[in-house]
Amino acid sequence: MKTEFDTTVPELLIDIESLGITDSAYEEISQNEMEQRYDESIPEVQEGTIITGKVVRITNSVVMIDVGMKAEGVIQTDEFENIDEVNPGDEIEILLIEKEDKHGNVYLSKTEADRLRAWNQTLEICEGDARVTGTVKRKVKGGLMVDIGGIEAFLPASQIALQNIKNIDDYINEDIEVKVIKVNHERRNLVVSRRELLDEERTDQKRKFLEQVRVGDVVKGMVKNITDFGAFIDLDGIDGLLHLTDMKWGRINHPTEILELNGEIDAMIIGIDYDKERVSLGIKQMFDNPWINVEERYPINSLVKGKIVNILPYGAFVELEEGIEGLIHISEFSWTKKVNHPSEFVSTGDVVETMVLSISPFDQKISLGLRQTQDNPWESIEERYPIGAKVKGTVRNVTNYGAFVQLEDGIDGLIHVSDMSWTRKINHPSEILKKGAKVDAVVISISPDEHKIALGIKQLSEDPWEKIFNHYSEGDTVTGKITNITTFGAFIQLRDEIEGLIHISELADKQVGNVKDIVQVGQEVTGQIIRIDPTERRIAISIKEHERQQVQLEPADSGETGTDGKPQQEAKRFESSINIDIPSFDKPAEEKAAEAPAEEKAPAEASAEEKAPAEASAEEEAADETPAEEEAAEETPAEENEEKKETSESDDTKENAEKE
């Protein structure tokens, strides 16, 4: 555009000399001095500080800012949140990053200025209570990023709320109040926590709540959590525990039967622990206790009806009314039957009639009995089964110590193993009785209180040991079969199933190492009774003594010799059926009389007795009256040697006979 001047206007002339401007007023200044003066005219500003500048011009991409320096500064328009609100002449705060870059421009930044200003403000806040408000921008690994005045702070997922949050996306774009818990000055980043603020608020609410409430107060709360043992109720900042047993006077299996999660309820404070800041709650305490005057409603020995609500291995619980339950113990179901589990008699939901046995209002317990509603068969047991009566029954069970015999339904008697035989040694009851067999027995004793009856089989017959001396005497010779062999001897069967013991030392006239070397089970042997003990029920028998007696009873040899010139020998058959030749020696009459018993006489004496019985009797009396002389004769060393010699010769003869 060309500008035209009006030539009609007179020219303005200025007298510069009158103004004091002459040629001498101008000084010649060097280039360096001029640059120095120019630099001094520019205000001193440090790089990295926030300064104020004026908007000079705005283009589509940049904003020109006059900051009073050699050149104008340039800021990109995208650093402004709303560029339309920025006008030329506006003053704004920017960060001086560099006074002159390689292009000679002043390097400025509004974003960095905002960040630095926010960072400084945050540091000031951290010096105080560190509580700031920010906007959740996005979700990152492990938590959320929160914008706090232009600074992004990291909020860990564990610090968002008091409890774990399943979906943290719900907090995005939400304004939340957080607390700065960590500052990194080098990286200019922050870590914040919302949970700490909630904890502080909760602690303050707890303190106020505990100052206001007392035990017995009824409060409102929200069901915060439900467990198997109860529920936690949020009481405006403090959690109260509502235990399962305090929800209802009656039976309740799980809190969900009467509570809902996040539901609002009324409860009574039944306990406060100020040190641990805990509160115990109860719902049933807001209603009357049904156990008050329970003894008047359910007197002892009264019959009551109720519903089976729970069955356990030790008994069944019966609900008599709301909040009142009694226990039928497993021992109170039947007078006679052995109950393994209450379910054998009752089921859940059954209505039963029971008798009240005992009540404890303080412990809130009632003992009930089911069998007490029926007649007790043990009360008249002594009338039906008097002691000494003969009874019949069925063997129901056999144990190591005896057999149980069922006399009637639910009434069993025990036949102990010791009451099965007078004489026989029984190792196990199954030797005599079998399960399911019919058996006759005698009632020995009865204990109605303990529900026990003792029976016996051997009592059906007389005890043979009571008349043992009518059948046996010491010195008698008996014959029987070997029934059992032990390490210490052998048992021999006598009459009336009486057994005698042949000790190992009484089996033979020599040392025996093994009983089976002498006798075998089933072998028939003969021995002499050497002792009878009715008290201990024992009979001792000796084969050795019997054989000695047989040897002594042999007649004396006449002294004849055989064809070989040796003494003639006599043969004797023992119980073992082995012929043993016993040599016969001529001995003086005195030695023979000493060896033989008093009642045994030498052949010469026998002939004398035939001629003169009176003299023989006199001699026998004389022999009986002088036992000391006989004992002295028996103890004579010469005779002992002679006996040893006879024994040795007898053993040799026996060995020869066995070989033959």
Characterise this structure:
- By secondary structure, the chain is an alpha+beta fold.
- It has seven domains: about 90 residues, Nucleic acid-binding proteins (OB fold (Dihydrolipoamide Acetyltransferase, E2P)), CATH 2.40.50.140; about 70 residues, Nucleic acid-binding proteins (OB fold (Dihydrolipoamide Acetyltransferase, E2P)); about 70 residues, OB fold (Dihydrolipoamide Acetyltransferase, E2P) (Beta Barrel), CATH 2.40.50; about 80 residues, Nucleic acid-binding proteins (OB fold (Dihydrolipoamide Acetyltransferase, E2P), Beta Barrel), CATH 2.40.50; about 80 residues, OB fold (Dihydrolipoamide Acetyltransferase, E2P); about 80 residues, OB fold (Dihydrolipoamide Acetyltransferase, E2P), CATH 2.40.50; about 80 residues, no CATH class.
- About 20% of the residues lie in helices and about 35% in strands.
- It is built from eleven helices and 32 strands.
- The protein has a five-stranded mixed beta barrel. Strands 6-7-8-10-9 form a five-stranded mixed beta barrel.
- Helix 8 packs across helix 9.
Helix and strand content put the structural class at: alpha+beta
Distance between the termini: 173 Å
**Percentage of helical residues?**
10-25%
Give the number of helices: 11
The CATH architecture designation of the largest domain is Beta Barrel
Give the full name of the CATH homologous superfamily of the largest domain: Nucleic acid-binding proteins
- In the predicted model, the low-confidence regions spanning at least 5 consecutive residues are 1-5, 556-660
Instruction: Indicate how many domains the architecture comprises.
Output: 7
Radius of gyration over all CA atoms, rounded:
63 Å
Estimate the mean pLDDT confidence.
77
Q: How many DSSP-defined strands?
A: 32
CATH topology of the largest domain: OB fold (Dihydrolipoamide Acetyltransferase, E2P)
The CATH class of the largest domain is identified as Mainly Beta
Largest sheet: 5 strands, mixed, barrel
Gross geometry? elongated
